[in-house]
Amino acid sequence: MPLRIEDYALIGDTQTAALVGTDGSIDWLCLPRFDSGACFAELLGDSSNGYWSMAPAGPHRLLERRYRPDTLVLETEFGDGDDDGIVRVTDCMPVRDEHPDLVRRVEGLQGRVRVRSEAVVRTDYGGIVPWTRRFGRRLQFVAGPDTLYLDADVEFDLSEHGRPWTEFTVGEGETVDFRLAWIAPHASSPARVDVGEAIQRTSNWWREWAQRCSYDGEYRHQVVRSLITLKALTYSPSGATVAAPTTSLPEQLGGVRNWDYRFCWIRDATFTLLALLNSGYEEEAVAWREWALRAAAGEPAQMRIMYGIEGERRLPEVELDWLAGYADSRPVRAGNQAARHWQLDVYGELMDALHQARLRGIPPDQSAWKLQRALMEFLERSWRDPDNGIWEVRGPRRQFTHSKVMAWTAADRAIKAVEEFGLDGPVDRWKQLRQEIFDDVCEHGFDSRRGTFTQYYGSSALDASLLLLTTVGFLPADDERMTGTVKAIRNELMQDGFLQRYTMDGNSKEVDALPPGEGAFLPCTFWLADNLIMQGRVDEGRELFERLLERRNDVGLLSEEFDPAAGRLVGNYPQALSHIALVNTAIHLEREHGPIEQRAWTGQTAEDGD
Ligand SMILES: OC[C@H]1O[C@H](O[C@H]2O[C@H](CO)[C@@H](O)[C@H](O)[C@H]2O)[C@H](O)[C@@H](O)[C@@H]1O
């Protein structure tokens, strides 16, 4: 039985990340970047695909696990059989100087404990067995483009089926240190490091970063944990945030909805920008904005919905058929075919992100406005085209209501750039466009019989993305079309207290081309809380928010979805979109009726404005 997804904690160095289980085993780590092949891939396969365990050798149990306050330094404590002996394993990835490092310290807290560690290193997602050599207390693993070194205070034995292992005893107050480093094969071998100093430096780095959080409300503890998670998912050399550090953790246990999230989605990243700006992280927000402008630069028709972490456009999807999949959920995929999608909303997302930056006094330079004008020209020609929608469905393209509203958002922000920031553009034409889209959505995307907006033009299906119509300012929260939509979504998409993304009935396969069935989508449930707060139903919004907080695991992490029947987190993990939504709703609750800065709602719609 694999560990549950929520049994893992995250450590990372802002260029890649690892998952550490409650059993002390590191079962996922891609080196040197988030999107590289994994050297530990047991998460998606079995022990032959690589892991690094560290726990008492005999019978033992987990006593406690936590992050050092306001850091990404993880401490896991184990008691031996009768709790006479207690050890602490401290894990972290120091923020990188030259190459990636992962350090582990075993510390005796009480009595004497025999500890066992196995370091089964693989490359290319557990598919390649490297050439392993021992030089005293140093192991070297070599395979093609990857060379790894494991330094330890104790010697490893290579005799057990080629799986390096070691056993040692720690007494109270004693420490035994380990360090795994990755280097390019042509680089010289890494010098040894002082693990205690590396852990201290890493703790200080995260604490200083966390102190910059400007949110000081009642959910500060949870907000800071989510922000640290977002920072850990942001590739620091470029400023791009990955949607999650994993691939193919299933949206349904045993199912086929298994995707690679180690890329940067324009949509997700725009939400990230808002969360960062709202919590005082301007530097990160500026880095993201510059990344987005570089990534989207060029011909607007060629803009992508997602990019690699350095802005790469080709992200071919392949199946890793040697991996059995988490809980037998196959296929395991690397790369994401959604990179080739046409999703209309990204133009609105990008226009809105740049508008938000201007609103907060961090205007992009003139060349950004040139790009925005080019995007608007493209959108004026293309907004009527069907697209793959926010959920990236793999069925036929459709006239998705949310996508059209995001085209409206693009026009709205272009108008505001001229009227509020004095930029130059055909504002009358854009006003006409905004009105035209508004009328089109209200005519075709609204079911007047049921009093709700619908997933796509002419359909009866509901879609939780419609909750975003208020946050972008398309309609005020108390407009009866929105209260009707929120009511219908609550009635039909709520499952055991959490929202499904869209109607999953016999017809859903026609839309997403996948067998029905997935967990409840946590970001959408946060969006429902936002709408309730905006309607003035703050207590109901808070109650829902707190229900969502309870779904976080013991170290404050969320995946994308929650399976209410199994009572388990599902989907890629930890997921940026869920943590972003948590931060935004917490801030929103603080301001109660004022989501104003959350998006760009200014109280004026095309209807009552012009
Ligand atoms: O379920 C279908 C799609 O699922 C993934 O997309 C989802 O994750 C994205 C990243 O967080 C998010 O932007 C999108 O709105 C979600 O639907 C997957 O990446 C797609 O390939 C897949 O079709």
Bound compounds, each kind once, are: ligand LLGJG24Q
What CATH calls the topology of the largest domain is Glycosyltransferase
The biggest sheet, with number of strands, parallel, antiparallel or mixed sense and barrel status, is:
8 strands, antiparallel
The end-to-end span amounts to 61 Å
Rg of Cα set: 25 Å
CATH architecture of the largest domain: Alpha/alpha barrel
Helix-strand category: alpha+beta
Number of strands: 28
Number of helices: 15
- Major β-sheet strand ordering: 6-7-8-9-15-13-12-11
CATH class of the largest domain: Mainly Alpha
Helix fraction by DSSP (H/I, runs of at least 4): 25-40%
Query: What general outline do the C-alpha atoms trace?
Result: globular
Low-pLDDT runs of 5+ residues are: 593-610
How many distinct domains?
2
Share in β-strands? 15-25%
Mean pLDDT: 93
EC number: 3.2.1.28
Cofactor: phosphate
Domain GH15-like: 218-586
Keywords: Carbohydrate metabolism, Glycosidase, Hydrolase
Question: Which structural traits does this protein have?
Answer:
disordered C terminus, binds the ligand OC[C@H]1O[C@H](O[C@H]2O[C@H](CO)[C@@H](O)[C@H](O)[C@H]2O)[C@H](O)[C@@H](O)[C@@H]1O, hydrolase, alpha+beta, Trehalase, 610 residues, four-stranded antiparallel β-sheet, globular, eight-stranded antiparallel β-sheet
